[in-house]
Amino acid sequence: MIKLEQVISQFKLELGADFVSTDVVGMDGMSIAGGSADPSFSASDAAARFAEIMKLAVKVSTKISSGKVDDNLVTTNKNYIISRFLGDGSYYWVVVVTNNATLGTLRMLMNEYAPQILNSIPQVTAAPTVQQVLDKPIDVKIEPEPAKPTKSRMDFWADQKK
Amino acid sequence: MGINGNLKDITFADLVQIHCMDPRSAKMSIDHKDKRAAVFFGNGQVVHAEMGDQQGEEVIFEVLSWNEGNFEVDNDIELPARTINRMWSGLLLEGAMRLDLAEKQRKLEAQSNGIQEENSMTQKFDEILNSLSGEVSGYLSSALVGIDGINVASHTLGDLDPENVSAQITTLFRLVDTSVEKLGAGVLEDNLLTTEKSYILMRFLPGKEYFLAIGASRKEGNLGNLRLMSKMYTDQLSKAMPH
Questions:
Q1: Residue B242 banded pLDDT, cuts 50, 70, 90
Q2: Using a CB-CB distance cutoff of 8 angstroms, which residues of chain B are in contact with residue A41?
Q3: In chain B, which residues touch A (CB < 8 A)?
Q4: What does the alpha-carbon distance between residue A39 and residue A115 come to, in Å, rounded to a whole number?
Q5: Is the pLDDT of residue B123 over 70?
Q6: Which band of pLDDT confidence, cut at 50, 70 and 90, is reported for residue A146?
Q7: What CATH architecture applies to the domain B118-240?
Q8: Distance from C-alpha of B51 to C-alpha of B35, rounded to nearest angstrom
Q9: Taking the CB of residue B228, how many other CB atoms lie within 10 A of it?
Q10: Distance between CA B84 and CA B91 in Å, rounded?
């Protein structure tokens, strides 16, 4: 994760004073790296909200047969907010800058840093799904149990009478 | 000199009834805008009315439609030649029926004007979107959409279903708007979705009840051109909106 934070720090430096916030976010809405330079801007809120936006963007794009989603750019009177998928879409990357920033430069920088960010995300071997476990054939050989020695059965009442 | 007042406070129909209960002759002068009418009463009936060159029952029917105007009554006057023979109750009944008919016609005309207005407004939107199609590189489609997701006007090249597209992108645009507001990230101006095949730009018209959506081909589209055209044409659409 250190490597990812380093790449993000470098990216922030390139943006300079226009930088507001950036996060690399899982599609569960949880940020794995990044943060906000503006204390009034909640990076974690943005991460969660834009995860929903990106999921909806994928649905919308599918329904209108527009293909895979590359990115979504929001323009407000204060900020630009760009969110784009990384790699296979397990993560997305959101960047917030002031609207003094040059949009063309920002997009160019994101194109440059996206592969570095993707390569810096720690790869965790995915746990097998339930289905994968159920589908796997049982490999263990079952030996028959050895015969137990016979033992006369105790009769409590018979013993008492004795 | 008899009573005087304004038709704002008492209707002409009421004044006729009151004076027809009095057997004395009387002349009622009524001013309304630039018109002046004179109505003569005698023996409990309306006997004559005049307004400019007009005389008789038609003057009564016109005065019945006035809902303001100063009047004054002179009693015990010399009556002119009789031009109205109908009973005062018949006059008022006929007058009420004519007013009712005129009101119904007025409503029908207003409705028809409204429909004509709507048609010409839709035509204007269609013209604007048609003009937009010639200005956007890689143009695919555009729509003026209500924030409820319903198309007001659309223009499409190819076989896109404009209703479906508008409904889908409205959900996205509304989510973006809410999110931006909750994050305190300012006032949303536009949202640009970039996909494998296209650019889809959504921009609010002032008031945020409608937005303009433009689709352009990813290969041939130009983002700068798209954003500029969206700003110019939202202005035009906004001016064409009824206020």
A1: confident
A2: 183-185
A3: 160, 164-165, 168-169, 171-172, 175-176, 179-180, 182-198, 200
A4: 28
A5: yes
A6: low
A7: 2-Layer Sandwich (3.30)
A8: 7
A9: 13
A10: 9
Across-strand partners of B65?
Answer: none
Interacting residues of B76 by C-beta distance below 8 A, sequence separation 6+: B24, B25, B26
Checking if the pLDDT of B56 tops 50, the result is yes
The whole-model pTM stands at 0.64
- Its ipTM equals 0.74
Q: A21 — alpha (psi -120 to 50), left (phi > 0) or beta?
A: beta
Alpha-carbon distance of B38 to B183, in angstroms, equals: 72
The residue whose two tokens read 């993000």 is A8
pLDDT score recorded for residue A130: 39
Q: Which residues does chain B have within 8 Å of residue A77's beta carbon, measured at their own beta carbons? A: 186-187, 189
Can you name the CATH fold of A2-120?
Answer: Beta-Lactamase (3.30.450)
Task: Give the pairing of strands A91-98 and B4-6.
Answer: unpaired
CA dist list (Å): B60 to A5, A146, B24, B34: 91, 124, 19, 17
- Give percent of chain B with pLDDT exceeding 90: 76
Record: contact A66-B196, CB cut-off 8 A:
yes
* The amino acid at A14: E
The residues spanned by each domain of chain A are 2-120, 130-161
Residues belonging to chain B: 243
Inter-chain residue contact A56 with B175, CB threshold 8 Å? yes
Q: Is the pLDDT of residue A152 over 70?
A: no
Residue B176 in contact with residue B197, Cβ under 8 Å? no
- Cα nearest neighbour of B140 on chain A: A66
Q: What ranges do the domains of chain B cover?
A: 4-86, 118-240
Query: Is A74–B168 a contact, with Cβ atoms under 8 angstroms apart?
Result: no
